[in-house]
Amino acid sequence: MAMLGVATVAIIVAFDATIVSTTLPRVAEALNGMALYAWVGSGYLLATAVTIPVFGRLGDLFGRKRLMLASVVVVALCSIACGLAQSMLQLVIFRTLQGVGGGMMIATAFAAPADLLPDPRQRVRWMALLSASFAVASGVGPILGGTITEWFGWRMAFMVAPLAALPTLYVLLRYFPDLRPSQGMAGRRIDWLGGLLLVVALGAPLGALQYGFSGEGHYLEGALLLGLGLVALAILIPYERRVSVPMLPLRVLASRDARLLNLAALLVGAVMFIMMFYGPLLLQRVLNVTPAAAGLLMTPLVMSIPTASILNGYLFPRQTQPQRLMVLGATLLAAGCAGAMLLDSGMSPNWALLPFALAGLGLGFVLPNLTLFMQVIAERRDVGVASALVQTTRAVGSAAGIAAVGVMISHTSVLTGVRAGMMFSIGCCVVVGILASRVRMRNLR
């Protein structure tokens, strides 16, 4: 029952991130805000990315139950505010605030299985449930968003998260244990300066990509933001080495395998959200389908990601080199991106089913292993921040991917920009496969 509560948190955060993908073209038209289209997605993911490691570390230090409960409340309230937005700028602001709650959700939900299930061989099956829940909700989100938009209007699409929050709060309050670190907290201080530096180091370069290089002539501001991020990173690294309880313990990246996994997570995040965020736009603009139909054409993601996640959970304990499962996933994901790139006007919409199915299978073999491998590599005291770090790099990749494709669209056209994004995604998948093959993750017997 505790894991059910965690799974519902994963479902809410997946709905929160993806339900607007099929709704957003209608929202941008209604609010006359196509210029801010990419900001609705990248603003949310930017806020999520910069807050995940902070809340992951706070969960390690103080326990995760209260953070999970707070995250559900924040996301629900911000979702209501998004549904009441009167301009595209208001929507961007509310979605960015909602991203803070999303970061809190991801940081706690994906670390919670390590608290409840110390044995990785047992945990992998529950991680499959968690990844499947996240993946199914990510696939259902666009369908649900498109259907609700067509039948009840785009504002009602934002009411899904508040409705889902009510049973989630009950299950968490009733069944999730209030686990705290065994060592006392006396004398410990929160590394707020390290957290601030981390937020700036992650957020400023992403802001530079979206704001400075989007074709609107803000190149100086973009260069300043990029420089600010580099300065924050240069200060953060030596500072965190001196702090007794750092916000980002650099030991979690000490091993070569941990660095390879986080780089792979960065690229996978970009590919995943380019597919999910711009896939419906490609279907609506190229194949001329309705928002609801675009969501239905992405249904294979709903079916294939959990299917592959469950199969991964079955195969993982039987593999002497489980990283090969990630190589398989990267290959399938690349094939799906290639199929999506080849979609063209005049084709039957049914041709879109195959690439999304292949992409879903690939993600199902990659996503759970990224988190599980990092938890196995990390020390027990750092499992939360290690889990949060790989989720952070994935979220950073997601925000960067959405922003990069948005920049390409602003300089070319919707069709050219999205296809260039798919081509970029294929290259990312190739690199992920190479990185995964170099991870020396031997199975635990």
The level of helicity is over 70%
Main sheet: strands, sense, barrel: none
Structural class: mainly alpha
Q: What fraction of residues sit in β-strands?
A: under 5%
Mean pLDDT: 80
The helix count comes to 18
Explain what you see.
The mean pLDDT is 80. This protein is mainly α and 445 residues long. It has helices spanning 2-18, 24-30, 37-62, 65-83, 88-109, 112-116, 120-152, 154-157, 160-175, 192-212, 219-242, 256-286, 291-297, 299-315, 323-341, 353-377, 383-411, 414-438. Helices cover 78% and strands 0% of the residues.
Give a brief outline of the structure.
The protein is mostly helical and 445 residues long. It has 18 helices and no strands.
Salient structural properties:
mainly alpha; 445 residues
SSE diagram, text form:
Blueprint: H1 2-18, H2 24-30, H3 37-62, H4 65-83, H5 88-109, H6 112-116, H7 120-152, H8 154-157, H9 160-175, H10 192-212, H11 219-242, H12 256-286, H13 291-297, H14 299-315, H15 323-341, H16 353-377, H17 383-411, H18 414-438
Helix pairs in contact: 1-4, 1-5, 1-7, 1-9, 3-5, 3-10, 3-17, 4-5, 4-9, 5-17, 7-13, 7-14, 7-16, 10-11, 10-17, 12-13, 12-16, 12-17, 12-18, 14-16, 15-16, 15-18, 16-17, 17-18
